[in-house]
Design brief:
This protein folds into 2 domains: 104 residues, Rossmann fold (3-Layer(aba) Sandwich); 150 residues, no CATH class. The chain has 280 residues and is an alpha/beta fold. The chain starts with 7 loop residues before the first helix and ends with a helix. Strands 2-1-3-4 form a 4-stranded parallel sheet, with helices on both faces. It is globular, with a radius of gyration of 20 Å. The longest helix is centred in the middle third of the chain and has 27 residues.
């Protein structure tokens, strides 16, 4: 489906057709299970989550909500919208807490749970995951600032990209190389004024979320895979394969195992989705 063809009247009756409290449109199939789990994590009224099969179609639904009052919800990645003035504020438009769903999927608790299963171990690797995030985030912070600047000032440069592989210490390492990051940042220096960089430093510093929530989700993926493989290799003295499909299936239900009162990210998304359902 490249173009959504629901009329506004059809959108308004979809929830009755699906016998749900609300219909939530998301960008793609990966997002369907994620947002369904967010709703189930705190016992929200039943929702039906439908894939718009792309950003263009999701934008079309957003337009029908904003311009025609369509009684459906859209749930989408926040990206850098909090920094770029592009966020649309509407009771039936919901955003992820972090940059994308991956920032939530790769929760240290979920990483621990998947690593334990793959390692056939009852050890707790949560501290290792938190320590890894701390080190990774510290090295990635300057990249984040320039990525925010790139989007805020529309320079059209690739900063994070869809993978961190070019910045890793080695192909199998879960850690970024400070030298590789610094060399890359030097190549960007002529694309931004110091005032623009300072403005983005202030924006990032003022954001109450931890840095790991602000980094592009796909940029984290390979490092998370390498971290889990590293944990398992140390535990079992054996190397394993971990595909992206298995990473997704092993992390997508993580929020169902957490207490909403103990996770600000989950709490924020549950609350916003609850408000959106009430506004249908």
């Amino acid at each position: 489906m490249t173009e959504l063809r629901y009329s506004v009247p059809a959108l308004n009756v979809l929830r009755r057709f699906h016998r749900a409290s609300a219909v939530v449109f998301v960008e793609g199939d990966d997002d369907r299970h994620f947002w369904r789990n967010i709703a189930q994590a705190n016992g929200l009224p039943s929702i039906y989550v439908e894939s718009a099969d792309g950003v263009k179609s999701l934008d079309e639904v957003e337009g029908k909500i904003l311009n025609d009052g369509a009684r459906v919800i859209i749930a989408r990645d926040a990206d850098h919208k909090p920094f770029t003035r592009d966020a649309v504020h509407h009771p039936r438009i919901v955003y992820t807490y972090g940059y994308s769903i991956e920032n939530t999927l790769y929760c240290p608790n979920t990483i621990n749970d998947l690593a334990r299963k793959l390692a056939r171990s009852l050890s707790d690797y949560t501290t290792i995951a938190f320590e890894w995030y701390s080190k990774f985030s510290k090295t990635a912070k300057e990249l984040l600032i320039y990525d925010v600047a790139n989007h805020r000032f529309k320079r059209g440069i690739t900063v994070f990209g869809n993978s961190c592989h070019r910045f890793l210490e080695s192909a199998s390492s879960p850690y970024l190389s400070a030298k590789k990051v610094n060399n890359f940042l030097e190549s960007l220096s002529t694309n931004f004024s110091q005032e623009e960089v300072n403005e983005c430093v202030s924006l990032v510093e003022a954001d109450p979320r931890e840095i790991r929530w602000l980094i592009k989700g796909h940029f984290l993926t390979l490092a998370v895979v390498n971290l889990i493989k590293h944990i398992v290799r140390n535990a079992r003295s054996k190397s394993i394969a971990l595909s992206l499909e298995n990473l997704y299936s092993g992390t997508v239900d993580g929020c169902l195992k957490c207490n909403v009162d103990h996770c600000p990210a989950l709490s924020a998304m549950v609350n916003r989705l609850s408000e959106a359902i009430a506004a249908v």
